[in-house]
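Tutorial sheet, problem 5. The two components below are modelled jointly, 585 residues in total.
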Amino acid sequence: MQPEFESLVTLKKAIAEKKLSAVNAVTAYLERIGQHDESIHAFNELYGDYAMQRAAQVDAGQITGKLAGVPIAIKDNLCTPYGHTTCSSKMLANFKAPYMATAVGKLEAEGAIIIGKTNLDEFAMGSSTENSAFGMTKNPWDTTRVPGGSSGGSAAAMAADFAAATLGSDTGGSIRQPAALCGVCGLKPTYGKVSRFGLVAFASSLDQIGPFTRSVEDAALLMDVICGHDPRDSTSANLPASDHTLELHKPIENLRIGIAKQYMAEGNDPAVTKAVEDAIEVYKSMGATIVEVDLPHTEYGIPVYYIVATAEASSNLARYDGVHYGHRTEKPEDLYDLYAASRAEGFGDEVKRRIMLGTYALCSGYYDAYYNRALKVRRLIKQDFDKAYEQCDAILCPTTTGVAFKAGDKTDDPLAMYLNDVYTVNANLAGIPGITIPAGLSDDGLPVSIQLYGNAYEDAKLLRIAQMYQSATSHHTLRPKLG
Amino acid sequence: MANPITDADVRHVAQLSRLKLSDEQIAEYTQQLGRVLGYIDKLSELDVDGVEPMAHALDMSNVLREDVPVEGMPVDKALATAPAADPPFFKVPKVLGEGSGA
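Model answer (structure tokens):
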């Protein structure tokens, strides 16, 4: 690969300095996708003609901006007024959104070129992309393994260099877990930093859009573009847009890194444990102090998450009624059957399972025992973090307990699949930012990562801390060899 | 441990969720949801008396904007996503029986 394609920052610079035309950049990515995506299946849909047309406009100086000419792929649960927005569901297989997601609109306003939409677990429900109605995505490092999920297509596309960056969404780890399994950077911003307008809703109090990139620097640049208040999302934080790049390369003085024993479980893969231990040494060598913090309610994150997320999903997905949009059954017997048959035909197994779990948790008689109790424990989890951040600037922990697992390994056991999210869900429940960064390869040649949690709204500081690690290591430059 | 959820519960929840399921699916979901609920029961270990429920990560409520009219989505654009439409209406199959009036 040519050096211009090393990262989003290098590509953007090469295009801006006219060392590389946007048309050539788009062509190179489309050729690469054409050559390799048959074996990876990262994409649900490509916008080749549209991308080439935009690229020509960039080269003619008609489109300008911070990301002029940079090809970016987006998760197929982000609405665009062109192409389809399917959420990898039969329910929305033919759905064409009538409007543009704010985050994607902001990318385009800065000259980025959207080249296609990537595969996901149906409605972002899953940790492997095996729940996609259109077939799973494969891990570019080993195509017998999953890329993680739910944003597995975006993670795999990034790992395989099918775009200069990609967008995903993270409800319980859906950016960070696949980033870990595919060996790329993945950021879940603070809840409310990025507008959710045009992101198909799964669990509205947890969903957040974020970038997959090669480097922390690339992630900071994308955050500058996509963050900010949006009157069309009343849960987007009404704060001035922040700058994530300005001080990125300035190390934090007197940095305190928190380590929680609850994340350093004996069951972790030794390669994962070693990655975190090595990172501790990296930070120590840069003058950081390591602080032990206590997050005693960590183990309750999964049960809280699977109540809160499914309860919200059961309500959000009530909109798929066979009337307003999406799939409708052929010959309904009556009104009830129109709803129930359309939904039964349109939704896959996992989506049905979660709708029912959430409906059950909200049922009168169970509401206090499940939903209300879960919300109270969510508060305890948040308070754990509040206390920890009195002692430290960021918490260093694993993203996953192990490396990418084999396709089919966990598909028969929903609970085993849910436990994948054990080190990621608590960031969503508390609303804090989390970033996954590559930390080398296991003995089997599979990516290993570390994760850093920051305090709410301190995304810029979290990125600086992550950048300190990347300035001292080169793991993020490793790439899989495609077959 | 006894399954915390029965076939009848799952049938009821499927009806509330508007999901048409076969008997085999009901049996399978009863078993799977039972396992998940068994795990979720972990939450009963904790004393949560006096803890304020947290429905949202952001401390905000009643977000309002200036009361000025803005243009909404044109009807034809909204109807374009429907499985069937007869502008300016969504079109649905006949839902009332013969002679039941309207």
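Marking note: The mean pLDDT of chain A is 96. Full credit if you identified this.
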